[in-house]
Amino acid sequence: MGIRRSLWMSISSYLEGRTQKIYLTFIRPSLEYASPVWGGLPKYLSDMLEKVQKRCLRLIGIPADSLPSLSSRRDLATLSTLRNTLQDSSSPLNEFIAPPQNNCYNLRLEGRYRALTKSKTKRHELSFVPRAMKLLYQDGDSVAIGH
């Protein structure tokens, strides 16, 4: 029993400062793989992913509130992907996004990109382009991104 305890103590002291780095390197990338594409998943699936993160953090001894939620990271990844798409004129996603409108009138929507189609279903609304466009203007980010 003494050998087992001393072995556990040496392993735990070695891992003490490294557990968060291990989580960020091996576990979280698996939870976030291709998240801009499937980021608009239903709430019950998002909650299931958050539970997996909380369980992993609890098992390795990291406070759950020390890292951002997976949903906020998915939103940031979606916005980053959209901005990269808007800046790359050869991107195939640009077919689904209308260029910004420049009107001779002072309108609130001037200089904003918009999706070419309206969402008629919740599933379409949570798909990449409509969701990304909503996120882009949700935070008051109405600055046009150069085409």
* Biggest β-sheet description: 2 strands, antiparallel
Which structural class should the secondary elements be placed in? mainly alpha
> Given the structure, what is the number of helices?
7
Taken as a percent bin, the fraction of beta residues is: under 5%
Q: Tell me the number of strands.
A: 2
The percent range for helix content is 55-70%
Oligomer: single chain
- What does the average pLDDT come to? 79
**What is the domain total for the residues?**
1
Distance between the termini: 67 Å
Radius of gyration: 21 Å
Poorly predicted parts: 142-147
Order the strands across the largest sheet as they lie in space.
1-2
SSE string: HHHHHEEHH
**What overall geometry do the principal axes of the alpha carbons give?**
elongated
